[in-house]
Amino acid sequence: MAGTGQYAEILDGDVYKYYSEGEWKKSSSGKSVAIINPTTRTTQYKVQACTQAEVNKAMETAKTAQKSWAKTPLWKRAELLHKAAAILKEHKAPIAECLVKEIAKPAKDSVTEVVRSGDLVSYCAEEGVRILGEGKFLVSDSFPGNERTKYCLTSKIPLGVVLAIPPFNYPVNLAVSKIAPALIAGNSIVLKPPTQGAVAALHMVHCFHLAGFPKGLISCITGKGSEIGDFLTMHPGVNCISFTGGDTGIAISKKAGMVPLQMELGGKDACIVLEDADLDLVAANIIKGGFSYSGQRCTAVKVVLVMESVADALVDKVKAKVAKLTVGPPEKDCDITPVVSESSANYIEGLVKDAEQKEATFCQEYRREGNLIWPLLLDNVRPDMRIAWEEPFGPVLPVIRISSVEEGIHHCNASNFGLQGCIFTRDINKAMLISDAMETGTVQINSAPARGPDHFPFQGIKDSGIGSQGITNSINMMTKVKTTVINLPVPSYTMG
Ligand code: G3H
Known about the structure:
Blueprint: E1 11-12, E2 15-16, E3 18-20, E4 23-25, E5 32-36, E6 43-48, H1 52-69, H2 74-90, H3 92-103, H4 107-132, E7 136-139, E8 150-158, E9 161-165, H5 173-184, E10 188-191, H6 198-211, E11 218-220, H7 225-233, E12 240-244, H8 248-255, E13 261-264, E14 269-273, H9 279-291, E15 301-307, H10 308-323, H11 342-357, E16 361-362, E17 368-369, E18 372-373, E19 376-379, E20 396-402, H12 405-414, E21 417-418, E22 420-424, H13 428-437, E23 442-445, E24 458-459, E25 461-462, E26 465-466, E27 468-469, H14 471-477, E28 479-487
Helix pairs in contact: 2-4, 2-6, 3-4, 3-6, 4-5, 4-14, 5-14, 9-10
Bound molecules: glyceraldehyde-3-phosphate.
Glyceraldehyde-3-phosphate (G3H) is lined by residues 169-170, 297-299, 450-452.
């Protein structure tokens, strides 16, 4: 059970402690932040409201710990990560329980998130050993005007302190996707988990604590973004920020100093359906892509752009599948569970009402109880409706009927977002041409958008993000290149 047995050390009364200097601590603020269970809409957990002084302390110890961590042999860093991965998998049940209570993620998906996170940490350790274990050797006579008098050796060195800010929808997986690359590359970590998901994140950090990482190398600071958010992101001790979330990321990128940024800020992933598509395959992917975790994924299918000639048939197939989705509490592993907060549910409702006023076709009756919104397919959506452009982050999916492929590409590219998109067709040549024309970081052919497998490059363009993620790219992003040049007194040509 979360918070009991070996987890008792991370709890003080009914408030979870934060983690700094290798210890579980109470904040000197004496204040806590309540985490509201999206299903019951009552307080489920409480976490410490950390102060700016506590942030300073975590930064200071992160800086010191990083110096000796960078001198720890790579194979030892990998070994510790493998250990943390194994502990994480062992503790999947209590962590998943937190995900169910804090973010209303369906029970099975919650377990999957933890297991996937363990796999990610292990893969990261292995990939780190491979890519950080080798550098480059360059010789000067390949550049015009030079003799072979200079040997250049390059290697990858850590950045320093990495600030990791994951979102509520994957508080464990999108935390470890930042923590593991940072650590294998020799960096230290200050983690600021989202409020909803903070307790799952604290339990995850506890696994790293049990694995025996050096004190101060990993900190987990909880509290209100409004009080410590800017303080953290503008902190002079931070050498890199890896953020996943909403448009707060745009504000962070404007305020952050001269540090590398890795950002993933949402999407309006388009699903373009051509006349020759396998409509059963499309319908299955629209259900999986649009409605899993109630549409609260940045890579969810967020607008269907279907050729008019096959639109009726596709909408009928999707409608039939929507009718089979189970709706209810995450504990019962329902397909559709309450969205994360009341304000999120209100926002989604605003989009639905706008579409209603502008006469979209409702394929189901709109229904909401508290934070629980029944799945809704909106047909005949037009570009003047908000739902055509905005991200509901909920189980509401618009269908726009198009009369040409160009119209679909145009709609996709007119979005401020550019995360992923997908195309359904049996013609690979057409698919490639459309993929090349779509202004998105990834295009999936004949499948719904998805970030995984976690070693694939994952990136957004425009307002969807900065930089590229995926295990290899994250490790590279969290390092910088160091070169040493050996200057010879006379040119040296091998075998010459
Ligand atoms: O919400 C954003 C995540 O990066 C999406 O990940 O495609 O595995 O659901 P996913």
